[in-house]
Design brief:
The chain is an alpha/beta fold. The protein has a domain of 294 residues: 3-Layer(aba) Sandwich (Alkaline Phosphatase, subunit A). Helices cover 35% and strands 15% of the residues. The protein has 15 helices and 16 strands. The strands form four sheets. It has an eight-stranded mixed beta sheet, sandwiched between helices. Strands 13-14-15-16 form a four-stranded antiparallel beta sheet, covered by helices on one side. Strands 3-12 form a two-stranded parallel ribbon. The longest helix has 36 residues. The structure holds calcium ion.
Length: 511
């Protein structure tokens, strides 16, 4: 009898402990893992329907959470996109308009600073690319500028620089896990994993070299675009045919190799690299290609390297998910994967980004938030990288400050809000590399109106329902006169809403 009594008492105590643990964890604000890649196109992700791609771990986040089918960026380029993520403000408000002339003013508010103040352990690890050093983080360790794929240097919090042997994507994941191991576990955490992959010049980990060699990629229908009626598209310098460099982008080096990531390789890495690319080079030489045949060979090589680099990235995203599983963190951790913008995989004959056309304006984004997001969800609402900061603050139970221009998309995911924004505003500023003209514009569910300025001057209008590939500029088509006027009015309202005075002035001067 006494034994039974003690046994029951033990059971009660265990139950009480379990209840308390559950109760406490329910009170704990969610942990956050934000994985930001670079230049990763949604067209290269199997969750977005590409049957040639193999990205099981990005797909896993979507299967266990939500796939955003209409996620966009406000300014399609590396540094500016990260500044928007951090601040929840457009480039003209956070000051980081382009990669060539801007440096991020770290004194301004960011969602990270707010989380740190609220008691979160916060970290940014990997690609940062904002010129100045991170501010307001519990921990950071970043690549200088673009960083290198092999044996990269890292900038440390104490101002020193440290070279780490290995492949960048693996190392960034290693450092992230080390930080998770050593963090103050009594506090919630927000970790940003900033990957260099899949940025130019697309060098995969040595074990992924050749992974897509047996795949023949289909040429996009508009690969041989003549840019008729689209002046900015005509004057750009980002084609696979002319701009893509054999001895740099495609590693068909002639003579001494100067590319940083290759020069830094150790003997074992360099042997694997040389063995693989020298075979490709010998094969190319035998083929003696020119004209369109050579351009199409470049396209195939570009995608083989790009998809292989993405495979190395996806494997490390899997490691992050495994870490959360292994440490019993999955349940109370939000995971978001997105790229800093989309990318052209041969559409319009291009690589690179910048334009407000869909492939670079859109970005892949998947999110898992157990208990909040129904597994296998798909979102067709317009969401933007501008919304990440307020969404994460919202999840942490913090009211976003007034100056944040994005809005939380949690109410949309929770079904508490029926519809998202009806239109999105975009503004691209850089007027240098790749010769893409600055432009701003509006996208609604059906239309896109773009105003180019500085390098080229003019308007473009696309009826996305009839012309999803954006080949037919109908701005001067009389049957769209009313639509154009309404869109211009709506665009003017957006420049006022977001207080983009430079764009507003240009619109008013038009009249
Ligand atoms: Ca980028």
């Amino acid at each position: 009898m006494l034994q039974f009594y003690y046994c029951m008492k033990t059971v009660s105590l265990i139950l009480l402990c379990l209840f308390r643990t559950h109760f406490l964890s329910a009170q704990q604000p969610p942990n956050i893992v934000l994985i930001v890649s670079d230049d990763h196109a949604y067209q290269a992700i199997s969750a977005y329907g590409n049957t040639l791609a193999n990205t099981p771990h990005i797909d896993r986040i979507a299967k266990e959470g939500v796939l955003f089918k209409k996620a966009y960026v406000t300014n399609s380029i590396c540094g500016p996109s990260r500044a928007v993520l951090l601040t929840g403000k457009y480039s003209h408000k956070n000051g980081f308009k382009d990669n060539e002339n801007s440096s991020f003013n770290g004194a301004q508010s960011s969602f990270i600073k707010i989380l740190t103040t609220a008691g979160y352990q916060t970290a940014w690890i990997g690609k940062w690319h904002l010129g100045s050093h991170p501010q307001g983080f519990s921990f950071w360790q970043i690549l200088p500028g673009q960083g290198q794929y092999f044996n990269p240097d890292f900038l440390m919090m104490d101002g020193s620089s440290k070279r780490i042997e290995g492949y960048a994507t693996n190392i960034i994941e290693d450092i992230s896990e080390q930080w998770l191991d050593s963090r103050d576990k009594s506090k919630p955490f927000c970790l940003v994993i900033g990957h260099k992959a899949t940025h130019r010049v697309w060098i995969p980990d040595t074990l992924d070299m050749g992974r897509f060699d047996s795949v023949n990629f289909a040429l996009p229908n508009n690969f041989y675009d003549d840019y008729h009626g689209r002046e900015a598209a005509r004057v750009q310098d980002m084609t696979i045919a002319k701009t893509m460099i054999m001895g740099y982008d495609l590693k068909m080096f002639d003579g001494e190799v100067k590319e940083g990531s290759v020069v830094r390789m150790n003997a074992a890495q360099r042997k694997k690299f040389d063995d693989y690319y020298n075979t490709v080079k010998a094969d190319l030489k035998k083929r003696n290609l020119s004209g369109n045949a050579l351009t199409e060979w470049k396209f195939q090589r570009y995608l083989k390297d790009y998809f292989s680099t993405a495979a190395s990235l996806d494997r490390n995203i899997g490691r992050t998910l495994d870490y959360l599983d292994k440490h019993d963190l999955t349940k109370n951790t939000i995971v978001i994967y997105l790229s800093d913008q989309g990318f052209y995989l041969g559409e319009h004959g291009w690589f690179d980004k910048r334009f407000m056309y869909e492939e670079s304006f859109r970005t892949p984004m998947v999110m898992r938030y157990p208990g909040m997001i129904k597994p296998g969800s798909q979102s067709n609402d317009f969401v933007m990288n501008l919304d990440i900061a307020p969404t994460l603050l919202d999840a942490a139970g913090i009211q976003p400050p007034q100056e944040i221009q994005g809005r939380s998309f949690l109410p949309l995911l929770a079904g508490k809000q029926k519809a998202g924004r009806d239109a999105m505003y975009y503004h691209y500023y850089e007027n240098g590399e790749h010769s893409v003209s600055p432009h701003f514009g509006i996208r609604t569910q059906r239309y896109k109106l773009i105003r180019f300025y500085r390098r080229t001057e003019g308007w473009e209008l696309y009826d996305l329902e009839k012309d999803p590939a954006e080949m037919n500029n109908v701005y001067n088509n009389g049957s769209y006169k009313k639509t154009t006027a309404a869109l211009k009015k709506q665009l003017l309202e957006l420049t006022r809403l977001y207080e983009d005075e430079e764009a507003e002035k240009m619109l008013l001067q038009q009249k």
